[in-house]
Write a structure and sequence with these properties.
Blueprint: E1 5-8, H1 12-23, E2 28-32, E3 42-43, H2 48-54, E4 63-64, E5 70-73, E6 79-82, H3 86-94, H4 98-122, H5 134-149, H6 152-161, H7 166-173, H8 177-187, H9 200-206, E7 220-221, H10 223-229, E8 234-237, E9 241-247, E10 250-256, E11 261-263, E12 266-269, H11 273-280, H12 288-295, E13 303-310, E14 318-321, H13 325-336, E15 345-351, E16 354-360, H14 372-389, E17 397-403, H15 405-412, E18 448-450, H16 464-476
Parallel strand pairs: 1-2, 1-12, 2-8, 12-18
Antiparallel strand pairs: 3-7, 4-7, 5-6, 9-10, 10-11, 13-16, 13-17, 14-15, 15-16
Helix pairs in contact: 1-10, 1-16, 3-4, 7-8, 7-9, 8-9
The structure holds flavin-adenine dinucleotide.
Flavin-adenine dinucleotide binds next to helix 1, strand 2, strand 3, helix 11 and strand 13.
């Protein structure tokens, strides 16, 4: 059976790309190395462009805002709850700092305005800053105009904020440690940087996309499950691609690990750029300089997922451990020297019969290696720290399961165990994602496109990269 296109990987982006191609009449085969689908809900923004392209509303897509989105454990006991409702959050902040409560609405309004700029940028191809083509220059001009239309203050805010650290930004606005910690934790998600690192203010803004004013944690969605069920493409699971074949500078198909060869004139890869271009692509087709740039993509996975099974409902809905920017930065200090944080930053969510926590910083390859003993120690640390914030919690935990960045590297094939296929640092966004000159999803090999979150617009924008990659492939074919 012949196919018009092969998509490597049945992640959200791979599936989004596959369905966009299928809706344009292409016969698409998706090859996924994992044997079973993992349809766990995920936090992120599903852009309206993806909604519309795949008619997701009709397919039962759910978007569930977290309430509260942050509940920060206070040092002297109690918590700061920040929710979806602005007046309720103001009242909660008021109890800790009347000054900050006064500042909160205007901070939130200004951040929302800036996030809306990113939302525009993330639904279109990355700006091509090297272009001399009239159409692209016009598009760049229109993008600039869209920023200007948000007013003089928004333009200044955007230019000032981009290179700032989250700590600098937050120190300008607030005095309350717990409030700054709630925002600081959002600014370091999946970053090998502390909140005092340059560019973390941008990361805060990135993770504000798709949220209402005053909310800095993206909603949870079942988009992976919806895409898994969508008819129109063939998904073959347990099919690991070991090579992308090329003839005369054009992709001709793939070879599976079991030796099967499958031909197609179009190959879109949802695997990360380094895996795709260095490990899977037949060698010799890329310029050595480009290979060097791809090898140098920063993908330092620092986030572990802890799943704590509990025998009764947790005494919280969400819980953030890490009550000040100093706490967050100290947690990062350990990672700088290759150690797992002794006092990690923990963002825990209670779900059915379990608590799922993102734990940072857990280096991909900690000094001393990643062992079962290290896994067990981390499970105990997470349980203990949550128990300090919610006394009695530890007694309800029946089992702790840890997935470290190294486990993700093994199961998902993620370079460096980085969930976003590459860090969202300022040198790895927009026209520089994954590397300068390749942000439009096309590669130097004809018919081969990058469709995963290692490309523009990056992780946490669910399906965004897949949609843009499919459109680029359609335009080129
Ligand atoms: C602890 C943790 C928390 C996370 N939290 C979030 C979150 O809150 N929000 C968010 O947006 N993302 C989150 N992620 C990341 C998320 O799982 C996705 O990895 C990410 O959204 C990127 O999606 P993607 O479709 O681009 O790639 P992926 O989901 O990584 O999909 C790529 C697919 O390609 C497959 N593949 C790779 N190589 C091959 C090969 N050679 N042959 C066949 N198949 C191959 C992989 O198995 C995988 O299924 C989290 C991940 C972890 C581990």
């Amino acid at each position: 059976m012949s196919h018009d296109a092969i998509v490597i990987g049945a992640g959200i982006n791979g599936l989004a790309a596959a369905h966009v191609l299928a809706r344009k009449g292409r016969k698409v085969l998706v090859l996924e190395q994992r044997a079973a689908a993992d349809a766990a809900p995920m936090a992120g923004w599903v852009p309206p462009a993806v909604f519309r392209a795949l008619h997701l509303k009709r397919r039962g897509l759910t978007v569930e805002p977290l309430e509260p989105w942050a509940s920060v454990a206070l040092d002297g006991g109690g918590r700061l709850d920040l929710g979806q409702d602005m007046p309720a959050s103001v009242a909660a902040i008021q109890r800790l700092s009347p000054t900050d409560a006064g500042q909160w609405p205007s901070f939130c309004a200004r951040m929302r305005r800036l996030a809306s700029v990113l939302e525009d940028l993330y639904q279109e191809p990355a700006p091509d800053v090297e272009t001399t083509a009239f159409g692209e220059l016009f598009r760049l001009g229109m993008l600039g105009l869209k920023v200007r239309r948000r007013g003089r203050q928004a333009t200044i805010d955007l230019l000032r904020l981009l290179p700032m650290s989250a700590a600098e930004l937050l120190d300008e606005w607030f005095e309350c440690d717990a409030l700054k910690a709630a925002l600081g934790a959002a600014s370091i998600r999946h970053l090998c940087q502390g909140p005092r690192g340059g560019g973390t203010a941008f990361s805060l803004l990135h993770h504000h996309t798709g949220c209402r004013a005053g909310v800095f944690r993206q909603p949870r969605t079942n988009v992976q499950a919806v895409l898994d069920q969508l008819p129109g493409v063939e998904i073959r699971r347990g099919a690991r691609v070991s090579r992308i074949t090329v003839r005369g500078g054009r992709a001709t198909g793939v070879v599976l690990q079991n030796g099967d060869e499958i031909a197609a004139p179009l190959v879109l890869s949802g695997a990360d750029p380094r895996t795709t271009l260095v490990d899977l692509l037949e060698p010799g087709w890329l310029d050595p300089e480009l290979v060097r740039a791809v090898r140098n993509i920063k993908s330092r996975g620092v986030t572990a997922r802890a799943t704590l099974f509990v025998d009764r409902p947790a005494p919280f809905r969400t819980l953030t451990v890490g009550g000040s920017l100093t706490y967050l930065e100290r947690a990062y200090d350990d990672a700088k020297y290759g150690r797992v944080s002794a006092r990690p930053v923990i963002a825990a969510d209670a779900q059915d019969g379990r608590v799922v926590a993102e734990v940072q910083y857990v280096p991909h390859a900690p000094a001393g290696g990643w062992t079962d003993a290290a896994r067990q120690a981390l499970g105990e640390t997470v349980t203990r720290r949550l128990d300090e914030a919610a006394p009695g919690f530890a007694a309800t935990v029946t089992e702790a399961r840890i997935e470290a960045p190294g486990d993700l590297a093994a199961t998902l094939g993620l370079s460096g165990g980085h969930a976003y296929h590459g860090e969202l640092t300022l040198d790895q966004i927009l026209f520089m994602r994954p590397v300068a000159g390749m942000s439009r999803h096309a590669t130097p090999v004809g018919g081969l496109f990058l469709a995963g979150s290692g490309t523009h617009p990056g992780g946490a924008v669910l399906g965004g990269a897949g949609l843009l990659a499919a459109r680029a492939a359609l335009a080129a074919s």
